[in-house]
Records
---
Amino acid sequence: MAGSLHVRNLDEDLISKLKLRAARHGRSAEAEHRAILRQVLDSEPEPSFDDLAAELRQLTASRKQTPSELLQREGRDER
């Protein structure tokens, strides 16, 4: 199932560049927009779980961490 995407508040300069690029490639501006999105997003590698976990650890490094065994114990004690 295909979806729709509406992009608002684009600069006129950007729209002109998109139309010129589309004309060079013999496509409509909409088709060129799809091609650009596909090219950029298909070439972007998906981060591995390890990379995402490392990023999360870095983002939360300054926060107080509670060991999971304490959280489990508290959960059992509340029952």
---
Amino acid sequence: MDSTPNFLSSLFRFFLFSLFLAHLQQHVVEGSRVSPIGLGPKMLFVFGDSYADTGNNRKALASSWKLPYGITFPGKPAGRFSDGRVLTDYIAGYLRIKTPIPYRWRKELSGRVKYGMNFAYGGTGVFDTLVAEPNMSSQIDFLQQLLNDSVYSKRALKTSVALVSLAGNDYSNYLATNASVAGFPAFIGSVVNQVKVNLKRIHNSGVRKIAVTALQPLGCLPRSTVLFAFEQCNGTENALVDLHNQLLVEAVKDLNKETNSSSFFVLDVYNAFWSVFNQKEAGQGSVSPTFENPFKPCCVGVSAAFSCASVDENGVKKYTLCSNPKSKFFWDTVHPTQEGWRAVYSTPVLQNSLKLFW
């Protein structure tokens, strides 16, 4: 029997599979090699939300898989809530390892699990939010399952580090579902207490160093500054952020004391954001001289009813887009642009925080 047709069929299937893997690889952005640290960690594990998500959200639901997201890098939507790279990519670059693959692609890109894994889902929080995606506790459960399945070993995790991103979704959810503003400080305490539990779980899994991001100045996000014509921040919101960050620092100190280690530290995103904002205000511009107004986003819905990536039933855009994303710190009403993240990453305050990684 002639085996040529079977051979050609197998070759064709292999060709299609190769194209599929190549397509997935485009979604897995390499971290930039920007700050060598010598012999460092071999794996990075990421937990949290859209500030760190590199493609876990479901395509049918997330704006991160729709235009104009991803137009700067990789040139099309790739699951990141930005026009390009996000915090995870820059952290991976600093550690001189490849950006870890999103958890949802772990089977298709099994060869990349050796660099770690990204469990972060955009829109999620420490507790459940209005987004139907895994909260942080569930994300840690995913890591535990991979340990149970022998994808990783506790011994292997001794040469790994973790990034835990907190961008405030718990607080947005609280305001959307709870009318008791007076209870906000107590809720902040409960969020930080749960963060402490989560950090200890990650440490118990075997991860050597764990960085948790301080909360960025929420009152300076465009969704808040729009009320002030994008000219100033909401001081009330930032006062609540200060409380969160104070409690977070205390929690990290407690964890290091309890474990008799220096395994936990805060990645000072809060002051890194302010460094960028204040440089513009002071006219120094050494980090990035191109941010004309750091509080005004590049992509925004044409009205309050629409957001970046919104289209009507005929596919007509319901958003406006700036001519040059590099000139803007914020991409949409919540997330920085790639250039914004690069500026944050490049600040001395964040570089000093990163030195604690290894």
